[in-house]
Amino acid sequence: MKKQLYLLTFLFILCFPAVSQSQRTYNATLSDYAYRYPVNYLEVEQEGQKFKMAYMDVSPPAPFKNPQTVLLLHGKNFLGAYWQQTMHFLAGQGFRVVVPDQLGFGKSDKAEVQYSFHQLAQHTRHLLEHLKISEAVVVGHSMGGMLATRFALMYPEATTKLVLENPIGLEDYRRIVPYRNLDELYQEELKRTETGIRDYHKTYYTSWKPAYDEWVRIPAAQLRSPDYPLVARVAAHTYAMIYEQPVVYEFSQLTMPVLLAIGLEDRTVVGKAYIKSEEERKKYGQYPQLGQQTAGAIPNARLLELKGVGHIPHIEAPEQFHKALLEFLKQ
C-alpha cells in the first residue's frame, strides 16, 4: 500500500510540477506575496481619487507598556517587508513598529498621480493619526531617508528623533545626472530584466549572499505580470520625484536629534547609468565624504560609519546597525 502511495505521489509531481521561482508572477500590489507580519490598509485620497495604502503595525510583547513608536520608511527599489529583521528586533526590545508601503510601492496601490515627498509625508502623517500615534522616531533608508527628512521638516512636533540610513539625496542629482523626461524613464523601466535587476542589487552589498535574492525575485516576478506597464509608469514617476525634489539644501533646518548611519562602501547615485563618462561617475556617490558633509550640516547629528558595509546596513550588517539604533533610541 505504501509503495503504491509513493508511486502515485511521484507521478503527481511529474505531471504537476511546482511553480518555480523563475515562473512566479506577482501583480501590481503583490497579492500573492506574503509578508512576515499582518498587513492592514488605510484609504488615502489624492487628486480626487481614493487609494489603498498598505502598512504593518507590530506591537511588542505584553510586558512592555506604553511603547515608543518607531516608523520605518523603505527605499525606492524595496518594500516594507525588507525591514522584517529590524521589526523583529525592535518589537523584542519593547518598541511599537509601524512600517508603511508608500503609495506606489509594495502592496499599496500603484496610483498614476503626481508623486512628491510632501504628499507621501502627508499620507504617512495621516497613517499615524489613524493609528492614534502623536509622535514617533522616524527611520528612513535610501529614498526613505529623503522622505524621512521631508516628514521631519513638515512635522517636527511628531518626530522625536530621526535616523537616516544610507539616505540618497545627499547631493543634488540635477547637477550630476542628465535629465530624462517621464516618457524616456518609462521606456527604460519597460526594458528591465531579472538579470539587470540582480546586477543592480549586487552593487548594494560588498559581497552577495543567497538571502539577498529575495529582494530581486519580487520585482522580477512583477516583470511577467500584465500589470507591469502600470508598475513601470509609477516607477518612472518616483524616479522623477527623487531627481526633481532634493532635500540636500535643508538639512540645516532639522531640529531633532539625528543618527546618520553610513555604510562606507556605498557608491549609490540615482541615475548613475545616465552619466556617460566613467571618470565623472566615480566623482559622485562617495558616501564616506557625503556622510561627513551631511553630519556637519545637521545641527544635532551623530555620524555612525560602518566599515565594510554597503548601501543597506540593516540587511548586510544587522547586528551592528541594530546595536547602534538601540543605543540611539534609548538616549
UniProtKB/TrEMBL annotation:
Keywords associated with the record: Signal
GO cellular component terms listed in the entry, alphabetical order: membrane
Domain of life, source organism: Bacteria
AB hydrolase-1 domain residues: 69-318
Pfam families for the chain: Abhydrolase_1
GO biological process, one term: acylglycerol catabolic process
Tagged with keyword Signal: yes
N-terminal signal peptide: 1-20
UniProt cross-references to InterPro entries, sorted A to Z: AB_hydrolase_1, AB_hydrolase_fold, AB_hydrolase_sf, Epox_hydrolase-like
GO molecular function: monoacylglycerol lipase activity
PANTHER family reported in the protein's UniProt record: HYDROLASE, PUTATIVE (AFU_ORTHOLOGUE AFUA_2G14860)-RELATED (PTHR43798:SF33), MONOACYLGLYCEROL LIPASE (PTHR43798)
Protein name, per record: Pimeloyl-ACP methyl ester carboxylesterase
